Amino acid sequence: MDLLDLADNPIPAGCRLEMISTSDGVRLRTARWPAPPGGAKGTVCLFPGWSETIEKYFHVVGRLRQRGFAVAIVEWRGQGGSTRLTDDPGKGHVRSFRHYLRDIEAFRRRVVLPDCPPPYFALGHSMGGGILLSAGRFLAPTFDRLVLTAPMLGLPQRTTMPGFRRLLLRFCVRCGAGPRYIPGQRRRAGTARSFERNPLTSDPDRYRINEAILAARPLYRLAAPTLGWVSAATRMFDLLAAPDLADAMPAPVMLVNSGADTVVSRLAIETMARALRNPAYVLIHGARHEIMMEREVYAAQFWAAFDAFIPGSSE
After folding, report:
1. Average of pLDDT values for 269-294?
2. 3 state SS for 212-244
3. Alpha helices, DSSP H only, in the chain?
4. DSSP state of 301
5. Given a cut of 60, is residue 68 above it in pLDDT?
6. In terms of Cα–Cα distance, which of 179, 188, 189 is closest to 217?
7. Residue 75, Cβ neighbours under 10 Å: how many?
8. How far, in Å, CA of 68 to CA of 230, rounded?
9. Lower CB count within 10 Å: N or C terminus of the chain?
10. What is d(CA 62, CA 58) in angstroms, rounded to the nearest whole number?
11. Are 123 and 47 within 8 A, CB to CB?
12. Spatial contact of 80 and 87, defined as CB atoms under 8 Å apart
């Protein structure tokens, strides 16, 4: 599927769009951009969050290329222009988060290593950050450093699932209910949340652009996760809570916590910062979940931290 080119969100120049196949036959939409003239400082590989698309990150691509980096990005299975895993394109579904590792491997082998200049740095948001952190040694020796913004390491306390409900959920999935929407969720595909009620960004212009992308390409919008996706996410949270996780991390990690985040658990990110041996930890007070989509007063703090953490980075 071609990239969407909007007047307020144009495709950055030099893009190479490519559909690649994973080891289990899933088709993934990927894109890459060369570094600007003058010699590349390396490649930043973008790993988006749940329901996010390549188009949403065009302005991030621009800021990374201004810093001298080549950029590559992949859309996870089940979202964006990649293969859907159920007959209903509004379902956010996966049987196991380990399957996302197949996406990383295909992206690494077919896009990053053959076509992008080293060194390689990973920038993962929300679900993408949780997947990268849980991958551990699987990422070695490709990525020199990882930057994770609002990584999904747990859910807020109000949505935390007690042990009994978690066991019941896994029982339902084993009985074949995995592809069903989670109970109580309306099928919201094709509908937009008002800016005033959105938990993602306080920037009205960025919110408007992101909603315009979804309005132009309705199939991009996921309605809600399935029982299978939620069950798989809880298993990933258990893995991330393992005491030996720090031993499995092959590269330095920077964790970025948004102070006004209501989408993922801020406490889980703080706890992970203490558990990892040498993490860089940044708390941006007042920022909502999507720090790279936030107003400049917040986004500038993220980019300053990024420049300090990634070798050679400066705007």
Report:
1. 93
2. HHHHHCHHHCCCEEEHHHHHHHHHHHHHHCCCC
3. 58-66, 98-107, 113-115, 127-135, 163-172, 204-216, 227-240, 266-275, 296-309
4. H
5. yes
6. 189
7. 25
8. 38
9. C
10. 6
11. yes
12. no
CB-based contact 36:70 (threshold 8 Å): no
The alpha carbon of 74 is separated from its chain's Cα centroid by a whole number of angstroms, namely 10
Is residue 113 predicted with pLDDT exceeding 70?
yes
Q: How far is CA 88 from CA 29, 84, 143, 169, 185, in A?
A: 19, 8, 35, 21, 15
CA–chain centroid gap for 203, Å, is: 19
Query: Which residues have C-beta within 8 Å of that of residue 30, sequence separation ≥ 6?
Result: 17, 18, 19, 20, 54, 72, 73, 74, 75, 107, 110, 111
* pLDDT band of 190, cuts 50, 70, 90: very low
* pLDDT at 138 (0 to 100): 84
Highest mean pLDDT out of 153-157, 188-192, 281-285:
281-285
Task: Measure CA of the first residue to CA of the last residue in the chain; give whole Å.
Answer: 32
- Output the DSSP codes for 84-135: PSSS-TTEE--S-THHHHHHHHHHIIIIIHHHSPSSEEEEEETHHHHHHHHH
Q: At what angle do helices 163-172 and 227-240 cross, to 10 degrees?
A: 130
Q: What does the block give as tokens for 315?
A: 């705007």
To the question of pTM greater than 0.90 for the whole model, the response is: yes
d(CA 172, CA 315): 50
Tokens coding 17:
């769009």
Q: Which two tokens stand for residue 198?
A: 């959105």
14-26 residue pLDDT tens: 999 999 999 999 9
- Which residue type, as a one-letter code, is found at position 94? V
Amino acid identity of 14? G
